[in-house]
Description:
Blueprint: H1 2-9, H2 17-24, H3 46-55
Amino acid sequence: MEVVRVMMERGEVNLWMPAAFREMLPFHPIHTVDVRGLPWIEIDFPEDLERARDIS
């Protein structure tokens, strides 16, 4: 993805996700889904993905 490559070249590798979203919005639509009341888990690392698979 070109937007991410440009951000990385500018050294913007430790920004919060909303900064990346703002950069991508002109090129890629972003949609949301209401997950209230549904099981979910935040996945930041491979171990988180494994845990999510174990509890699903």
